[in-house]
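Appendix B. Raw example, untouched.
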Amino acid sequence: MPPRTVVLRDDPSPDDNDWTFDKVTLPRAYTNQNGIYYGLHLSFTPEKITLSLDQFSSNRVLQTDDQTLFIAASFAGLRFKDVSSKVNIEYIKRFLKAGLVLNGKNYWFYGHSNSQLRSRSCFLRQSATEEDMHARIMSLGDFGSIKSAAKLAKRIGLLFSSATLDWTLEPTYTRDIPDIEVDDTLFSDGCGLISQYLAQLVARQKQIIFRQRRYTPTVFQIRYKGYKGVLMLHPELDKKKDGHVHFRKSMKKFKGVSNNTFSVVEYSVPYVYSRLNNDIVTLLSALGISTETLLRKLRSYLTWLSSARNNLDNALDFLSSVGEHDLAERVLLEGLEDHKVQGEVTKALKKEFASFKKIENDKDKLRLLVQNSRFLFGVCDPFQILEEGEVFVRVTMPRSGPQTIHSCPVLVVRNPCMHPGDCLKLRAVDKPELRHLVDCVVFASKGKHAAPSLSSGGDLDGDKFTVIWDKELVPPKIAEHFLYPNVPEKKKGQITRQDLAAHFAAYNSISMGRAANLHARWVRCRPEGAMSSECQQLNALYSKCVDGALIRIPEHLRTPPEPTEPFIVDVMRDEAKVFAQEWMSNEENVKLIVNADSDIQTIKALLTSDRISMTEFQVLQTAARIAQRSLINLRPFFPLMNFSALAATEKRIISDMFGMNYEENIVLWNSLMRSDLLDQSAFQRDLREPPLRLHRLYTTANQGLSGFFEYLKRSLEYYKRRLIIIKTDDRFSAGIFIRGEIRWDEEYPVNEDIAVFAVTPTASQSMSLYKSTVNGYRLHCSDGLFQLYNKQIRDTWIFINRPPNESRFELQTSIALQKISSQTQKHMGRIRQTPIIGVEIHVVSNQDRIAHQIFDLRLDRVPTEEKLRSIAKAQPYVRNTLSSVNWEKEPEGYKEFFQFSQPRAEELLKKKTLDELDDLLDFSLTHHEENRAFWIFRAMYSHQHTSSTMIAGWLLRYPDLVYNLLHSILIEDVRQIPPPLCDIRQPILDAVILTANDAPAACTFAVQKLRIDINLLTFDQYADLLWTAATVVRAHDLVQDVLVQLDEQRSALNTEDSLKYAHRQALQIAFERAEEAYEECPCDAQGRPTKQRTPPARVRIHSKKGRELPEVDATDKPQAQDVQPAEIHEPRSLKHPIVVADIRVDKPFTPRLHSHIRLAPASRPEKQPLSWKREILDGIITVSFRDHVEITLFHHPPPEYESMEWSLYDCGSTATAKAKLEAVKRLNSEAYEACAFHKPITGAPVDSLLPEGPASSLTTTQWEGFNPSQSDAINKSCGTSLSLIWGPPGTGKTTVIVKILELILKQLDEGEQILMAASTHNAVDNVLERFSHQNSVQKWVPDTSLIRAATDHSRVAETVRKYTVDALLGGSPNDDPKLIRQAEKRIKEAKIIFSTCAGSGLGTLRKVNFSTVIIDEASQITEAETLIPIVKGCRRATMVGDQ
């Protein structure tokens, strides 16, 4: 007999590279009597590689192939010891590439379902070659357009997902229809339509039965050809006869081919209750559900479970709730005293208690069943009649059948859920058009966002949602939703089988597990729970790695503190664990209980249960069977029977079954017999004869007062006769008969169609009086208002409305009692704005049959008390003051200094050394003693050993000190900064500019006063001063004034043409940058940012000092840092400070490398002093990571900056402007070295004509395929240093450029390069695409000599991305700093670089020179932007453009 398990290899090595096994006795695959196939299963562990048999789930691949050719391979247990996870990944890659050779037969990697990917298993298939197998799988669908390995694996995975062969559906019966989209929001993602006819056929084919009856689901999760998703029942298809299945565009994942198998994966069923798990309890706690409420729910649930073994009522409830419907019926028919039944009940209870532990890791978990809930498929509203924030929920209710959850808030959430915003609080409404959709949740198809996407990024292609309408569990707060982004796909060219195998091998869920574990730890140590910023960021990271993507968890999220108190989930879990252990160890619960429960007790339990999964008619039939067995008279049980839930036909059957007499038939047919409000003596006297055939539609005893107007509207719309009963107290009730058509929200004439009766049981003679309306009466019914009046509103008879919100009542009424009778008025006095304590609405069926009563569905509204923002309001920070100083720890004399008057303090300062003054000034500014800081600074620069560097450092830390300095040195006729302070001329001028926002008048005056010093600056220094002004001066008019003032002070130097040109360009660049900053971040006249189109990011900042940047993995994006500023704690340094801003990874962040940002305090200080001013910091992002950025600041931050929260405003990128300014500076300083024709550019005198270019004999050549003007342009461009080519659109300019590139390539000397630039990425890519096409034929240069340089890889056209550095290196230098040198080497070896003009001054091209530059679309860019490529050592340039 063949073995069941075979060991192929013991102790496999991580270095294995061959998996050939010969002469192996294989386990014999077989198919059992149920048609289930057991095939070969290959399992890898560090201890051994084994081959055994395991069940193969049916899927579309196996259904259309020979299953004996397949082997299922599992790597779930492959974790080699003491090695990194990369070793395991490489092992799997090698195996999948080499394949398995078993007894001479080759097995290759074939594919996997998405669930197999997560469980680390896949299918191998026998084939002679891997290519044959690849062709076979590709024949199942058209996958050619898919350029991402991850996406292709997902699409092929649909073919491997478990699905049975349920139907062969010919494409002629299907239609493709568009999705429901509003303003680019997709509402029908994965949700199509199916006809009633086909739904019934499929249900019969799958033999779907519920409680011994055929059952047709309303939602089917399907797989068909390339379609994936759900189909919802849509009877309109039967009427229109336009196909039986309509697939949405979003359902089509790929183009299927020949296989017409229609497979049902799952379908909707009734009575699937939701459960509270760890995730949901965590979120409910954050949203305001109290610990007491959650513990009370848990204890009630545990008590209910423990009593289910010996309490018939609870046994029936429990078994029905957990889906043991057949066992519940056996309990009814055979009783709990039956040993077999009792054993089955015990087994079900043990299973429930055992579910409190996770099987995979033996950890405790919460699993609390909620009665007022369901776990449902989500579908879209096909008619778009639901409003945003509404849902339609119609479920099968015990005893009552399909019922609509109506006019109440419901909690909707999808697992897994980690963000409080995943909990959706929606309003359940009733829409008759949707009532055919049962046991599913219908979401609105209009609004700003699709509701499913807001709950853990869900969709409608098969996602199930927890829906709860238990008023104690619907939270009083709602949280701002997290908008789950789509994970970007890594695209490449044609995807191979090895790409798919590598994707499978590299997939792991480690990152996801780490994020979830850290979230669970942070939620326990933060009072905000899941609303804490740390938890929200971890949720964002978790959402990015659900498909196996790697993430890097930011350093500040890796080490949560220890919790200080027990967390609600742990408390509930521990209590449930102890309870379960005690119950399981209690012998009384394990042994069989012989309890002589009588059939009478069984019938009573059956009729009082509101959870048993039967209709009322089935309940009564079962009760009759039990009664017949023991000859029990059922008449005493009539009060327990809900006759209102029966249809007319069922009532007739029950009447005959029970042999009801005349009196009993009145109870059966007249719902007033069960009225909670009417005095029965009044009923017997006035309402019994003749018997009314009424059905109770609404009662406050079940649905609550808040639902009155909703049910009133329904009664008026769907019925022609209604009876409304209202009760104010035990002394008074009134009934209102309404007949005929009544229109909603209109003053509708009712004339004689209304009668009112009053019941006053406490009067000396019980009264029940009728009074009818007469001609002229009108009735107005609308939301919140019921008003019956005679001709004019002032003659109102009955008025019902909702009182103001501040009232503690839900409904109130005013009734003109004198219109009923004077006796009634005399007895009651006045009824004016009197609270209503009860209301009922009874209706008569239009077809003389009783409609189903809505049973126990309406609950009190749960008001939303608070909406929790994902970013909480910033808290005030504590400002440093002298009152908080511990003087004992400070140097001697400090306390006295801050107590002395100015004269005494200045005397004391004269005795201090320079270092002591430095320390004292630091202490003073740290504690905001600015006035004394001026005294100290004066003493510092007056000191005989004063240091210019120290003075400059303090000016940059606290620029206001500059006026103290200038006041002392610019006296009498002194017009410039004297020695030795002239050495720090530029820091002094920088300090003046930095004060512009707070002291604009002083700044402009100082600029004028320092005219000589401004003229003494070099051009580079002056350009930097303009740059500082354009960056830090925020008010629109002020920055213009400052720039103009600076330019005017330099006018004396603008005598040379070249210098004049440089000044003009620098000023223009500064103006453009200041204008762009103002457009991106508008500021008021005081320089404070105004309300922005996009809210600013909220960040915390801290010093870079001491921070070790984490290792970078493949998902991070570090950027090269252009400068190396000083640390923030070096006050004497002349360099700008650096701070690190931690970025919330769950929020969009638009600033990037080189962005100009502004930091403003997000809150005010505690005990805000009158002198406080909002310190706004300007800076440039010089290093950018995904979770943090480094910012080089122009201003020093306040001393409390690390304890403050900051609003970060994006003022736009400075990259292009900075590159333009650097180009102007280089042209001015290097002249000819920068550009051979610098003189014509700057306007300097030219001694002769432009020098000829390299010797050429092409000056008069007529080129084949070109007209004379094109040939002339080509010849002159190749023979001169500077040429301009002009031509209107469509004249072949791009073709000419390609020819020029071809010819110049032949003229290049060794080491020379060509830069092909343009104003836009599209223009660059257009030239590259044209050139590469011809180069592939002519072979002018190897493809590796062509480089497409771009700082943003995504902006390059897909057709030429293969020429980017990222594609050539197999990765981005932005992702991996180790690739930077390789990128530079590639750039150096290339012959032609293609880039935008701005891009040629950035990144790896910043320091690269080019002998030849060609610029396309030159007429569409500014002169300064053209300089960026031109000044890179250019000796020959051609500029091409049109008008």
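End of appendix B.
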